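Form 7-S
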Amino acid sequence: MYRILVTNDDGVYASGLKAAAQGVKGLGEVFVVAPSGQMSGVGRSISVFEPLRFAEVNMDGQKAYAVTGTPTDSVIIGIFVIMKGKMPDLVVSGINVGENISTDTVTTSGTIGAALEAASYGIPAIAVSIQTVDQGDKFDFHHEDKHSFEVAIKLVRRIASKVLEKGLPNGVDLLNLNVPAKATEDTEVVMTRLARKIFRTSVQERFDPRGRPYYWIDGDLICSEAEGTDVRAVYQDGKISVTPLTLDSTSRTDFDEIRDLIED
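Output:
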């Protein structure tokens, strides 16, 4: 029987985690291990300066485990403690409320960070997210059924079943799936590459009651990018984006050009 680990960065009580578990239900033995609270934006961070604990919780009849750490911590505790070191055949991270597209989010998303951690052990991984119209939704606690996950659930199930059977193609460590807010069962699925940016970064200066400044990192969305990118697919074309990712971040450049920069 296949062993499937499901995690997220929105927290163990998030409705998207329940949806992800539903997407792989019946495909194998499912283990749900996720952060005890909201952990968006932590990337692949790992807790090395404090101990971790976990507790068993009831997720609408599904046994799950809440970990007092990051999404990456949850994958590690899931594999090496709860699954007793027996590697899962697949890790699904999500379903995240808020799209994870472009290089901006690949390096900061806890959803993708968890998938990258799984991939580092050679485990096929899927990160899946849904677009939100209200950007503030990305950082709320997602305990309610405010968002529809039906299209994402069916997509996860279809892809997960094939990955379990065939594995991922050579050179692909994980698939990053992003579903537009208005997607239907007929929405086209396209293969994409990462856009360079999705945020036009800015910083807001404000002042506390004592007159001392503090700062909020903010930024408008860049909703129009080059054809073939994930940002273009989701925001401009309204299509489901599937981006194959790899752990190897080595630049595909001519090493002689780099040698010219470092040699006397």
